[in-house]
Amino acid sequence: VVALDKTGTLTEGNPHVSRVVSLDGVGEERILRYAAAAETRSEHPIARAILEAAGSSEIARPEVIELTALPGRGAEADVDGETVVLGSPRLFRERNLLDGEGEASIAELEVEGSTLVLVAWGERSQTPRLRGAVVLSDRVRPGLAKLVPELRRHGVERVVVMSGDRTPAVESAVRSVGTRESGFDEWRGELLPEEKVDWIRELRARYGPILMVGDGVNDAPALAAADVGMAMAARGTAVALDTADVALMEDELARIPEAFKLGKKAARIIRANIVFALAVKLVFVALGGLGLATLWMAVVADMGSSLAVILNGLRALKA
């Protein structure tokens, strides 16, 4: 089974802010200003997009006194003496920060293929109030439509997508590759890091070994839980790279099936080398038992088999 993250893996991982929406009469500039302040120390692609939007608008970010990252959910910060909460609709529902009017506003904003980041703030002694939303868009990577058929050609039985992003955004990326028969077998959105790990374990129990492909901090637990973790290295975070077993130095989806191809070739070479080395030893032992072996034959057999194994191993250099 191959499990793929969405943001930064299936998509280019370079989202951009398409618009800022005020839901409480607050100026859009202030919403973006507070959102950028809360994302100051984050390495997530969404955080980078918000910071870039604030930078391009020359918005002066306020001083952040205290900041708490909420993995898979968002962030909470003390900004200008106010408590700022930024994150997914799921986080806001968990904290009871959405009323009926807020839910209605979110429903209008949930355009397929977009990522929604809600922003709320209020005085420290009060419950933060929903003020607005930042809407971001990202493009799927070129070659996504060819990925699943290539993986199946290499013996992969199931290809799934797991993401912390909104379910409509995940479905939009999934539908871009076609039907269920030619595309992904299963997908889930709005997953927290620990929920990704739970699904990895569930898939392993049902189907067998798992390869997880991701790039972010939120993917690190799943990369560690999978039988093989593979990180997209060009834009991947340091945590993901340290956790993964394999790093793709080019963020191209075509490299994933190529890794399967190289892995199979390496396994064939290793098996051939073992069989050849053992065969040489067995032949020499037989000759020794018959009294036909000499010292020079032993030297040639030992060094010759070593050189043959090395030369055979060099075949792995040919793609």
Characterization of this structure:
With 319 residues, the chain is α/β, with parallel strands linked by helices. The model has no long low-confidence stretch (mean pLDDT 86). A hairpin with a 5-residue loop joins strand 6 and strand 7 (129-137). The chain has helices spanning 6-10, 28-38, 45-56, 89-94, 100-109, 144-153, 167-175, 193-207, 220-225, 238-243, 255-289, 295-313, and strands at residues 2-4, 16-22, 64-70, 74-79, 82-87, 114-123, 129-137, 159-162, 186-188, 211-214, 228-232, 246-248. The two termini are 24 Å apart.
Summarize the topology.
Layout: E1 2-4, H1 6-10, E2 16-22, H2 28-38, H3 45-56, E3 64-70, E4 74-79, E5 82-87, H4 89-94, H5 100-109, E6 114-123, E7 129-137, H6 144-153, E8 159-162, H7 167-175, E9 186-188, H8 193-207, E10 211-214, H9 220-225, E11 228-232, H10 238-243, E12 246-248, H11 255-289, H12 295-313
Parallel strand pairs: 1-8, 1-10, 8-9, 10-11, 11-12
Antiparallel strand pairs: 2-7, 3-4, 4-5, 5-6, 6-7
Helix pairs in contact: 2-3, 11-12
Structural shape: elongated
Rg (CA only): 26 Å
N-to-C SSE series?
Answer: EHEHHEEEHHEEHEHEHEHEHEHH
Structural class estimated from helices and strands = alpha/beta
The order of strands across the largest sheet is: 9-8-1-10-11-12
Low-confidence stretches: none
| Mean pLDDT over all positions | 86
Helix proportion range: 40-55%
